[in-house]
Amino acid sequence: MRPENTRLPRCSAPAWLCLLVAAALVLLSACGSDTPGSTGTAATLTPTTVVQTPTPTSAQPTPTPAPGYTQVVLITDNSNGSFGFTPPKLAIRAGTTVIWKNRSSAPHTVTSDDGTTFDSGTVAVGGTFHFTFKTAGTFSYHCNIHPYMRSVIIVV
Asked: Which residue among 21, 38, 81, 142 has its CA within the 20 to 30 Å range from the CA of 90?
């Protein structure tokens, strides 16, 4: 038996609270562990790479070169009363001869923008002009009588 004056030590409420907080911290730190073999579900960060995409330009794609050694460009009346070259852009291979046929109701010229590569002079209604493109390059041209008429030949 126990003597009457002997008492068992009692834990106070703050001591229990400290013990409870310590146990919770141990459990939480174990759940967040990122060590091998741990059973926690910690998130892993994956590096990301930012790739800048190029800004598209307003340039139009180059048409596929037309087969053959002779191509025809028509000079025509448009439905709005103006004139034009059809097609407005033509891709050909070096050595190709282009024949312009004036199917419009007015005379025209076929003049390279540099003024020296080719110049048809005046092409009468129903008339033609031809030029053989021997070297690769881009050849812009126009009509001197109707300067709004513009076109381009791309030689590959």
From this structure: 81
Sign of the torsion angle spanned by Cα atoms 131, 78, 138, 144: positive
User: Rounded distance, CA 138 to CA 18, Å?
Assistant: 86
With DSSP H G I counted as helix, E B as strand and the rest as coil, what are the percentages for the chain, rounded to 5?
Answer: 10, 30, 60
Within a domain: 51 = no
pTM, full prediction: 0.58
Pick the closest to residue 95 from 62, 63, 66, 129 (CA basis).
66
CATH (domain of 79)? 2.60.40.420
Burial class (CB in 10 A: 0-12, 13-18, 19+), 54: exposed
